[in-house]
Amino acid sequence: MSAFIQGYTLGLAYVMPIGTQNIFVINTALTQRRSRIWLTTFCVFFCDIVCALACFYGVGGIMQSSRWLQLAVLGAGSLVVMWIGFSIFRDKSTLEGDEGKSELSAAKVFTTACFVTWANPQAWIDGSMMLGAFRTSLNGADGARFIIAVCLASLSWWVVMPTVVSLLQSRINNKVFRAINIICGAIIMAYGAKLLVSFVRLAAVMFG
């Protein structure tokens, strides 16, 4: 199998599972006007490829070697992720036209994209182990093809997924949308709680 195909398939497998990134983009695709959807897509894609490139070149190893850095990111990240989840969980906005929707500011879109992508140190460590392992097994040219394909897979997903969700918006009524918010918010809060548990465990090891 070519390095490009390996990179593309691995990139899709890396980005497609439901997580905070996907839920943030889905929620945006259902509630925001098209320009904000594309801004969100670009911001998440940008954060995603920065994470992938950093993992490919081993920055996760730095985080893995520094317990203080892990502790700081886990602590701050858990609180931010839980707040994002709670905000979605309690959101009672409707789908009745763009004028009824509160528009996310560009700054909030970018900062939220950064948090949902970068707030979990375990993602950096796991990503570094996965992508870094491929880097060690590929030569220079194949390595470049591999990571380019990973980035293209990310781009493909973040363009196609919100587009499909936005097109299906007309089939989703307010009751369904509220249920989606409750489920998605609960999932994100659970992610945040999991990070908080990891923070407590790491703190116990460091200070116990």
TrEMBL record:
It comes from the Bacteria. GO terms for molecular function: amino acid transmembrane transporter activity. The chain crosses the membrane at residues 12-30, 37-62, 68-89, 109-125, 145-168, 180-204. Its main location: membrane. Keywords: Cell membrane, Membrane, Transmembrane, Transmembrane helix. It is a multi-pass membrane protein. This is Amino acid transporter. It comes from Hornefia butyriciproducens.
